[in-house]
Amino acid sequence: MTLTDFLIGRPLATSEERAEQIGTSAGIPIFGLDALSSAAYGPEAALTLLIPLGLVGSTYILPLSISIIILLIIVFFSYRQTIAAYPGGGGSYTVAHENLGTFPGLLAAAALMIDYVLTAAVGISAGIGALVSAAPSLQSKTLLLCLIALVLLTIANLRGQREAGGIFMFPTYLFLICMFAMIGIGVAKVLLAGGHPSPVIAPPAAPKAIEFVGAWILLKAFASGCTALTGVEAVSNGVKAFREPTVKTAQRTLGIIIAALVVMLAGIAYLVKAYQVVATDPNAPGYDSVLSMLLLAVSGRGAFYYVSIGSILLVLVFSANTAFADFPRVCHVIADDGFLPLSFANRGRRLVYSEGIIVLAVITGILLTIFGGVTDRLIPLYAVGAFLAFTLSQAGMVAHWKREGGAGKFGNMFVNGLGAFVTGTTVLVVLVAKFMDGAWITAVMIPALLSIMYFVRRHYDYVREQVKTSTPLDVSNLRPPLVIIPMPQWSRMAKYSLRMAFEITHEIRVVHVAEEDRAAEFCGLWSHLVLEPAAKAKLPAPELIQINSPYRFVIGPIVDYVIKTANENPGRRIVTIVPELVERKWYAYFLHTQRAALLKTLLLMKGNHRISVLNMPWYLK
Amino acid sequence: MTLTDFLIGRPLATSEERAEQIGTSAGIPIFGLDALSSAAYGPEAALTLLIPLGLVGSTYILPLSISIIILLIIVFFSYRQTIAAYPGGGGSYTVAHENLGTFPGLLAAAALMIDYVLTAAVGISAGIGALVSAAPSLQSKTLLLCLIALVLLTIANLRGQREAGGIFMFPTYLFLICMFAMIGIGVAKVLLAGGHPSPVIAPPAAPKAIEFVGAWILLKAFASGCTALTGVEAVSNGVKAFREPTVKTAQRTLGIIIAALVVMLAGIAYLVKAYQVVATDPNAPGYDSVLSMLLLAVSGRGAFYYVSIGSILLVLVFSANTAFADFPRVCHVIADDGFLPLSFANRGRRLVYSEGIIVLAVITGILLTIFGGVTDRLIPLYAVGAFLAFTLSQAGMVAHWKREGGAGKFGNMFVNGLGAFVTGTTVLVVLVAKFMDGAWITAVMIPALLSIMYFVRRHYDYVREQVKTSTPLDVSNLRPPLVIIPMPQWSRMAKYSLRMAFEITHEIRVVHVAEEDRAAEFCGLWSHLVLEPAAKAKLPAPELIQINSPYRFVIGPIVDYVIKTANENPGRRIVTIVPELVERKWYAYFLHTQRAALLKTLLLMKGNHRISVLNMPWYLK
User: Fold this and answer.
1) Cα–Cα distance measured from residue B314 to residue A239, given in angstroms and rounded to the nearest whole number
2) Inter-chain touch B492–A466, beta carbons under 8 Å
3) How many CA atoms within 13 Å lie on the side-chain side of A196?
């Protein structure tokens, strides 16, 4: 246990829970990292789609970013009200479930779960990808580095949130400081230069335009840019984790996260247009990220550049942490409703939902391994889940307002309805545009996950029905059980087991599976060792059953005899006494045959409810 | 079980054992493959050491080979008499153990076990190495191919010996035919050419001599050439596997193996001298094996060449099979004497010692992985074990003759003494010459293995002492046990467990670990559900114990309560009833909490001999 204590900390009591809850400054890195880090790939994703437009492309980033910011603000107000309406947390699942019904709720939950897995996988792979492009000698170790990062994140999260928040606070704030500094210096330079700044290091010249501006390309660019919104739902899922006053703290945290994101999106768009930055093809040599080009244009290749790039790398890897904070919570809420195995609802020794963390880590590890830790291959699977959950959550809020009514009913319905419409449209656009590239995997996974959820729920309902009773104890016709004792030879264990059998019943059968000619020896001693003492004490004689085994197995014949006896004595309870040699040393497993364990397992698997096992341990001194 | 049946065959009864036993023609591939395949590397190992002598080297192969053949014949007669003296098998271990004592016996056993692991590893790596040099595109897959070969060999051996013999018969006889054909054609050509044949494809010219002939270099070459002897002990270990008349069949098999090996060693030496073949450096480019050069000189690069090279590859990989036939047998004999875990002595479903096969496969797999499947790195570890076992076995036979006496006593003692002396010298030479290259690993492993053996034996002696008794059953002061039932809620399982408790005792304690405020609900129902029916039946009332758990665990408090109760009731037996929901579906493991299993395990680990567990299964319909 010492190693476990060292890695994930001492167990925490439920009464220590309050101390684990977090404030705004810790909440921003924990629940905002995913949303904030989106600034590092959202604008770039939109600009990459505008490459065919040439230099004209960079002029369209401003209206696109304004639309995205408006959408972001709509989503913010929606989630702000969700937090107030649902202070217990649960986010999209709870909202969709309570307002639209079970199926939309589970659909939102499945979408979110898949999205969190991808948040973890993409965050880690993008971060390691950036690290690897900074240090090309590590290229061949990409997957290994991804898995190491995954293990470190998992351990950090199994230790509990406060410490996790502490670990992630530094890179998040460093990232925000760097971005704000870049935007501040950049905007000042642009204004001082009258709108035509001269870059310190100029971005590459824009390629020749090969397409004209059209509605379809702008819609696609808008849809891709919307990946900047992934992660904003995190706060609403985790409201419960915040310090009192819970709702206010959570809303303030969400507000700060959204405001910071808006400043970054607007600032980046403004600078892209002013410095005439056009995205470079990520699949071609000479690729440079938009943020890197902006940093070079504003400040050149100095210490600030490297610190900023470093903070981007860290934030991308740690953005995966949002998934570790929220995936287990979503699983917990769904498990509480019986749609996932109950073990997801059990808190571990550090007041975190350990099983959810471990399942997320395993699935993320599998995804990273399959896709070789390469972000580009994972991206098409991403965003579908997030926007599906947004849509369902906001549609749920529309139903909520409709039902609740009150002042501003129609205004609220309009805001959420608009959000639902725009995010719903985005889901369709992303699905169509990226279907063949991998979105189909998400489209297949969501119904698969839904099937599992319904199956689990049906199974639990069935078990509850089978186990449930309200009738009192029945003590009619009590009768001591029939006891069966396997006895390979006369030993202290055998003697002790037989004595124990006499303490609970008077009907005892001793089974001796004969190995060749040793049976005679045992039976010769039977009268002296057992029958005489029993007769002297006026106890009924145990019956000796000899079984000849043509195979070298002894377990099988014993199991068969127990089941046969149960069938021959209908309504009778059969207790099989299994003596077991126990040694409290790690090497004991290798030295002793595992016959007792095997016998117990086989009786459990092949037996029926009348056959029980009495396990008698015998300890070596 | 269908997959197991398919892979390793249906279970065989002990009565089917005779049918599994083998004759001469099947015995040669099974027990001779290792010895026969030595012809492919023994002469080459000697010639490689003679490279510094230049062309003069090839003239010394004849006297060296004659010495090795004489040694081989001495060893043959020794083992021929060992087979007759020990028809039960056991080989070097049995002979050394019975005649020299326990320690020399175990030393021989440890040496043999390590040697078998290396036989398996070297056989596989040499075979795959040859395959890979024939198809260089597979070079990067060397280790993977080695492990695939290992898995196939393991499965073949788990199926049982007769089939294993069938699989290996073809390559062994093909190899013998090719070698005999090469020697026959070669010798005929030499004789027809009056001792100066003209090679079809001439071997490379001999390098200039850079050393003079000396006693040390010849001794080293002799020692290396002695690797041709590895594997000749196999038959004596496996005498029991042969068809009746067991001893005669085994002796005939050994005789044929040795005769074939002598013909090959003599023929190869004769042709090497006649064609003036000098070994090439295996670490330098342009390396060609001695057998390959001989085949090219005798017959050119035709179909016969490729068939012969192919048979060499197959025989090398399959020579590992000798280890699979003998390693488990040695483990079995030693386990029977209590020096290895008893599970090595249990026959599996196909009348083979499955555990020995699996352990060999695992250790071989580890060795191959550590050394990357490269023969050259494994070779220095090899041969020490084999020759140490030879030495001890032959020394044991000296003691045997001395004790037994009879006609020819001194002649027999001289033959075995000579063998012991020469093989003992070889052990020392190999150790000194290859110590730094890896022989030290073997030198460390043998004492480590010996320590394990003595530890295991001491442990079993200790256990036997603890368990042994010859006193009869004691039925004085019988008293029904105190029964404890953990009960999280009222259910069919709880009701059934409580009824079972009343059938074996009248003193029952029900433990309810309260999760927050649910305790009150349960306790409110207690009187109606349990106390009233018990009172009506005039049974003593079960005692309700409520435990408040500040942690989210329920198992820990139950275990603590059981142990506390046992301590408060000295001399009293405590039975804990553990109800367990059983579902015979693979996915059940994921859906149900493993609390019952955890409780059982913790009670076993933390409890004492007075605390036993009554496991009550509840089956879902």
Assistant:
1) 67
2) yes
3) 0
- Any CB–CB contact under 8 A between A540 and chain B? no
Question: Rounded CA gap, B178 and B182, in Å?
Answer: 6
Residue linked to tokens 């993008």:
A126
Q: Name residue A434's amino acid.
A: K
Contacts of A11 in chain B (CB under 8 A): 551
B570: left (phi over 0), alpha (psi -120 to 50) or beta: beta
Q: Contacts of residue A586 in chain B, CB cutoff 8 Å?
A: none
List, in order, residues 6 or more apart from B42 with CB less than 8 Å away: B68, B225, B226, B227, B228, B229, B265
* Domains parsed from chain B with CATH numbers: 25-40+61-194+213-269+305-459 (1.20.1740.10), 482-619 (3.40.50.620)
User: What would the mean pLDDT of B232-261 be, rounded to a whole number?
Assistant: 88
Distances (CA, A) of A335 to A109, A159, A355, B33, B53: 11, 22, 11, 60, 79
Residues, chain B: 621
Q: Which tokens belong to A422? A: 């725009």
Q: Cβ(B495)–Cβ(A473) under 8 Å?
A: yes
Q: Does the pTM of the predicted model rise above 0.95? A: no
| Confidence label for A261 from pLDDT (cuts 50, 70 and 90) | very high
- Asked if B352 contacts B161 with a C-beta cutoff of 8 angstroms, the reply is yes
For residue A270, which of A64, A109, A534 has the smallest C-alpha distance?
A64
CA B74 to chain CA mean position, Å: 28
- Please state, as a whole number, how many other Cβ atoms lie within 10 Å of the Cβ of residue A198: 9
Q: Could you tell me which chain B residue has the CA closest to the CA of A602?
A: B584
DSSP letter for each residue of B119-174: HHHHHHHHHHHHHHHHSGGGGGGHHHHHHHHHHHHHHHHHT-HHHHHHHHHHHHHH
Which tens digit of pLDDT belongs to each residue from B512-549?
A: 987 666 677 788 888 899 999 999 999 999 999 988 87
Do A504 and B591 make contact, defined as CB atoms within 8 angstroms? no
Of A467, A505, A591, the CB nearest to B459: A591
Dihedral of CA A134/A135/A136/A139: which sign?
A: negative
Q: Which residues pair with B547 in a beta bridge?
A: B513
User: If DSSP codes are grouped into helix, strand and coil, which group holds residue A615?
Assistant: strand
Task: Number of A to B CB contacts under 8 A, please give it.
Answer: 201
Spell out the alpha helix ranges (H) of B194-274: 215-225, 234-237, 246-274
Q: Do B475 and A502 touch (CB under 8 A)?
A: yes
pLDDT reported for residue A258: 95
Around B214, how many Cα atoms within 13 Å sit in the side-chain half-sphere?
9
* Residue B613: predicted pLDDT: 93
- Identify the CA nearest to A316 among candidates A131, A442, A111, A112: A131
- Straight-line distance from the first to the last Cα atom of chain B, in angstroms, rounded to the nearest whole number: 23
Q: For A319-324, what is the mean pLDDT?
A: 82
What is residue A546's three-state secondary structure? Answer: strand
Question: What was the ipTM of the complex prediction?
Answer: 0.71
Give the contacts of B543 (CB within 8 A, at least 6 positions apart).
B508, B509, B510
* Neighbour-count burial of A110, counting CB atoms closer than 10 A to its CB (0-12 exposed, 13-18 middle, 19+ buried): buried
Q: What are phi and psi of A22, to 5 degrees?
A: -120, 155
User: Does residue A245 have a cis peptide bond before it, meaning omega lies within 30 degrees of 0?
Assistant: yes
Place of tokens 């093809």: A281
Helix%, strand%, coil% for chain A, nearest 5: 70, 5, 25
**Cα B548 to Cα B517: distance, rounded to the nearest angstrom:** 10
The mean pLDDT value for A505-528 works out to 82
β-sheet bridge partners, residue B483: B508, B575
What does the pLDDT average to over A140-166?
Answer: 78
Q: Closest chain B residue to A580 measured between Cα atoms?
A: B604
